[in-house]
Amino acid sequence: MFLLALAVAPGIAVCLFIYSLNKYGRGSMRYLVFSFVLGMLATVPALLVQMLAEDVRDAPSRHSILSYAWYAYIVVALSEEGSKFLVLRCYAYPKKSFAGPFDGIVYSVMIGMGFATIENIEYVRQFGAEIGFSRFFLAIPAHASFAVLMGYPAGKAKSDRPHAFWLMLQGLLVAVLFHGSFDFFLFLQQKREATEYFSTGILSFGTFASFYIAVRLAMRAIRRHRADPDESNDSDDADRRGDPDKLPGEWSQNTNFRREE
Fold it and tell me: Is 220 within the bounds of a domain?
């Protein structure tokens, strides 16, 4: 029971923390909980992709550093972030409560933490409490940061329809970039040939740098929301102003136009 709590608690704690930061509007709790559950289910397609691909860590001497990069960025990072992205785009994005950048962050974090919780349960089951504690301080915050970096552009896309495709793609690619870099340097530490050219300290620094930059960028996105409420109008605000079919961004633009007149 303790191991299960250790595996589940970090993801839920991150979800509650991010939800508490949303000062200007909060989506339906039912939708957020379902997003978390769908994030858990998103582990299935990612796992299938990784099962079909050869794990380079099983035979390190047979694989080049380029093979490690392919495995980290494409097989692992793209399959995992892509699965989460599909949930975000197909389930959360169409919701009326998904109306601004911070809504994108909240929904994306719910999905990401659902995914990370299933990963945590499996890791703790296999390796015990020690790995659970280490993931609490590294892997879980990393997954949360990747989710913020994906969700923030997705939230902006909702009120910027002409650039929506590129904003959504940006969020996906940035999450894959940082997730892949984090895993790439981590995986290389298990390859003897790599440690002959680069010390374990340098490879560890690469992992930490990927983690640190992702966390810093995620915190900047959150601070931007808290400093600028106009970026985070939600659908309830739009409903109170009048036409519920209008996006909050459109109402904000119209209001500014009338003031200028």
Answer: yes
**Residue 72 DSSP symbol:** I
Tokens of 71: 């495995």
Residues 6+ apart with CB under 8 A from 257: none
pLDDT tens by residue, 186-242: 988 877 666 667 777 888 899 999 999 999 999 999 988 766 655 544 444 443 344
Strand runs (DSSP E) across the chain, as ranges? none
Structural domain count, the chain: 1
Range of the domain at 153: 2-233
Which amino acid, 145? Answer: S
Closest of 110, 77, 74, 67 to residue 92, by C-alpha: 110
The token duo for 76 is 């692992």
Structural domain contains residue 254:
no
Q: State the pTM of this model.
A: 0.83
Q: From CA 115, how far away is CA 175, in angstroms rounded?
A: 14
Residue 248 included in any domain: no
